[in-house]
Amino acid sequence: MTAQEALIELMWRKRYNMAFPTKLFSKKLADQLRFPEEGVFDDIALMYKLLAKADKVAYHGLPKYTFHRHENNNSNWTTNHSLITAEILDEYLTAYRKRTIWLSERFPEEKATWQYFEWSFMISMVEKIHRLQVACEKKLAYMTDELSKNYYNFAKSPHVLDFEKKWLKMYINKN
């Protein structure tokens, strides 16, 4: 795949995920890239930059590596939604915003795609906050406002999934 194709596959998370331990990449791709000193979700802050530097990306498709998430793992909230906090959402939203901006500058022809993935994250978090009654009122208000402002662009995206359209109708007012 090209770097751009690999990034889109990464965002869909169907073939592979963001986790560094599940990838092999050339040292030259990592030269001059550093893990962020702040925050705890370094994979989201860096993986897309590594893939974007690649001339080509290969995907094998057969599992060759496994890892275990211990109970204190930073990403446990992705499967145990009761662990969602305003702080985690804030860090994720910031990382996704930075990612959207960076990718849009690097691959402007896919700007709408990068934006879709940011909105997709937001609507999934809005749904979880409502369904699980998570106390994240300010983050919920921020995401609801952003999605409301961009309702039609998100709803008309060629990437939008049926359940995302359903959630938009349930939780977001059209502006």
Q: In words, what does this structure look like?
A:
The protein is built from 8 helices and no strands. The model has no long low-confidence stretch (mean pLDDT 87). The chain folds into 2 domains: 67 residues, no CATH class; 97 residues, no CATH class. The protein is 55% helix and 0% strand. The protein is globular and about 45 Å long. With 175 residues, the chain is mainly α. α3 packs parallel to α4, α4 runs antiparallel to α5 and α5 crosses α8.
Based on the model shown, name its key terms.
single chain; 175 residues; mainly alpha; 8 helices; 55% helix; 0% strand
Compact summary:
By secondary structure, the protein is mainly alpha-helical. Helices cover about 55% and strands about 0% of the residues.
Averaging pLDDT over every residue, what do you get?
A: 87
How many strands appear in the DSSP assignment?
0
End-to-end C-alpha gap: 38 Å
Q: Outline, from the CA principal axes? A: globular
Strand residues, percent: under 5%
Main β sheet profile = none
